[in-house]
Specification:
This protein has 140 residues and is mostly beta strands. The chain has one domain (14-139). It is built from no helices and 12 strands. The chain has strands at residues 14-17, 25-32, 43-46, 51-53, 65-72, 75-85, 97-100, 108-109, 117-118, 120-126, 129-133, 138-139. Strands 1, 2, 3, 4, 5, 6, 7, 8, 10 and 11 form a 10-stranded antiparallel β-sheet that branches. The chain has a two-stranded antiparallel sheet with strand order 9-12.
Length: 140
């Protein structure tokens, strides 16, 4: 019996899993995408052509991961799970749960949505770190 090769339809330059040392990513992808326009901490999804900013306004745009690092204008690191070092983040206070924002593409909120689509994204660990754990979205 032979084996079949995995053929990715996603533009991926590098897949990595780093040791969970508490000071960086656990699982991330390096994504090449010309003129992506993302900033660190944006939540993104794969839209079929390029990656785009996620938003909890319709199910087709829910989050897949967080931009952990902008390498340059044409590539970024997509954190699938793990700790993101973001010294200047204004995502919330330590202990705050993060949810994909319904009104602003790419953003998170600490306010639990009471209607529409709810997607937990992670948890603020400190003023310089947050934990990414993208969960399934739910309509309420």
């Amino acid at each position: 019996m032979g084996h079949s090769a995995f053929v990715s339809t996603f533009p991926i330059a590098h897949i990595a899993r780093t040791p969970d040392t508490g000071d960086g990513y656990v699982s991330f992808l390096t994504i090449p995408q010309a003129s992506h326009g993302f900033a660190q901490d944006n939540i993104v999804y794969y839209s079929g052509a390029p990656y785009a900013k996620a938003q909890a306004d319709v199910e087709s745009t829910i989050g897949w991961g967080a931009v952990g690092k902008v390498i340059d204008a044409n590539s970024f690191e997509l954190v699938l799970e793990g700790i993101v070092n973001s010294p200047a983040h204004a995502l919330g206070n330590p202990g705050d749960a993060l949810y994909l924002d319904q009104g602003t593409a790419g953003a998170v909120t600490t306010s639990v949505p009471t209607s529409g689509i709810v997607q937990p994204i992670g948890l603020v660990l400190s003023t310089g770190q947050y934990y990414v754990h993208i969960m399934n979205a739910e309509s309420i």
